[in-house]
Amino acid sequence: MESGGRNLVLGTAGHIDHGKTALVRALTGVDTDRLPAERQRGITIDLGFASLELGEDRLAVVDVPGHERFIRNMLAGASGLDLAMLVVAADDSVMPQTREHLEILELLGLSGGLVALTKCDLADASWTGLVEDEVRELVRGTFLEGAPIVRTAATTGLGIDALKAELAALCGSATIRPDPGLFRMAVDRSFTVAGHGTVVTGTVASGEVAVGDELEWQPEGRVVRVRGLHRHDRPVDRVGRGSRAAINVAGVHHEEVRRGHELAAPGYLRASKVLSVQLSAAEDAARPLRHRGRYRVHLGTAEVSATLALLEGNALAAGSGGLGQLFLAEPVVAVHGQPLVIREESPPATLGGGRVVQPLARRLRRRDEASMDRLRRLRSADPKERAAAALAFLGLNPASDRELCALAGIPIGEVPGVLDELTRSGALVEVPIGPRRTTRVLAEFVADLEDRVLRALSRLHAARPRHSAIPRAHLAAELPDLSSEALIAGVIDRLKARGEVLAEARTVAAKGHSPKLSQGERKLKEELHAAIRAGGISPPEVSDLAATAGSRAAVVPDLLALLRDEQRAVEISPSLFLDFDAAADLRRRVREHLEGGRTMTMADLRDLLSTTRKYAVPIGEYLDRIGLTRREGDVRRLGDAEA
Questions:
Q1: pTM of the model
Q2: How far apart (Å, rounded) are the C-alpha atoms in residues 520 and 503?
Q3: What is each CA distance from 407 to 97, 372, 614, in whole angstroms?
Q4: Which CATH architecture has domain 184-264?
Q5: pLDDT tens-digit series, residues 485-512
């Protein structure tokens, strides 16, 4: 990205035929009316774009249509603005779309801008003064109250230099949204260029991207690769926040990508059909926002039908606010704090707006006080509160730093520090989930999971009284709502460290548990061990042992597992157990045979152990499994394990 200065996005706003496009042309030298119909009719139908250099600062200028019929295009262009230029024609004064555009800019949360009075060459000074007074009255109580009002005439050049000076001052003083640090761009156009393929354009909302990078195309979730970049019609190696960008991507056809889709850093955004939002009904709304009402929602460059579920009351009257959920007809991507606008389609009217509180939501109930409290905490100015609330909604599902950036509105570079603070305070607990890997889970959920693991172990022990321990896989199956076996393993490690369970690589048992055998079962267990021990390397198979047990055959697998857990037998395969000492001896003999780089065939193993192929094959597979040997085609070499 170019060094020095700031990259900001300026959007025009105002009524049809008030001279927005002509003013942009006078400022930048660019005619933003690109469609033939726009030039023929003299009105802007879709979005137009230009750029303006102001010293070291650079403005990406978005020219929006003023006609009410094209308000959806205006909203698509207004979604990523830093600054606004409200345009009012001196010969026409404030008109309906002037008011609605200003209202939309308010709902989108803009904080900086100015007013340009256009066509001042067509009105006398006294009339222009009256129009200025009307504009001041219009903007009172809005973000434009006290903003400069500059008189201009695009045809004569009147006021253009003064307007540039005011814009330069505005760039220097403007407060812009913090950059999350991850690339994101809402698509406003997609087309194909011969010899290059798919090109998508948009305004970069955050982060930066370089040629060769991979991005995710959302809401589809597919990975695409950046083949080329243009910034304000010039080829560049990278683009960043506040830039108008054209991105040549590989991996998607241009007809698949449409306005409302997004390109984003991998792992940053996830599509959802439910959003929890903080709503504000417009001050001049003709009708209230109603519970279970159907509306059009404008978010980024997307426009989608939605049903509104209010979480506080049954209606939001003009000027009031409250929490709600939007159930969307199709999935979108959003981040915490992202603004949106709600419109009624018939009769068309802007009724309100708001900000996304929870980008990945599920249906909430008004009486669910815990969830309502989490939503309120997600509105906190304290990033630790927001992070804790976002993690609470996720439950035991871990979130990456990139996901937390989107879910809690925390810049990616600050996420590790926030998590460290929560861990130091005890709100988060580090749970091991593998060698040198941990995940952080809210303490309340870890305590609950520990209790659930202990209760599940108790149930399994009761169902398998002859077992000394429970296979970890069986324990995981007892907790089917937990998708992460690694997380369960981490909790087992915590319980083991406190002495509440006994855990091995494949099994776990509650503290104090011991197998419960009848006198007859204890006797049969010793008989089984004696038979295995007497067989040496070629003992009876499990089926033979069961046949010998007669009416007691059903308990043989449990008793063999118990011998294994007591380290009196080794499970070679599900059908073959060896005496523990016999297994240790065969491992020693195999190791000695293979030392010095020698190899061993199956026939060599059979002869070394003085057994048959029936036993040599499962023993060879066992040796591979424990890492003592490594199979290479038809031969085995010494492996890395110390078994």
A1: 0.76
A2: 29
A3: 34, 16, 58
A4: Beta Barrel (2.40)
A5: 778 888 898 899 999 999 888 889 999 8
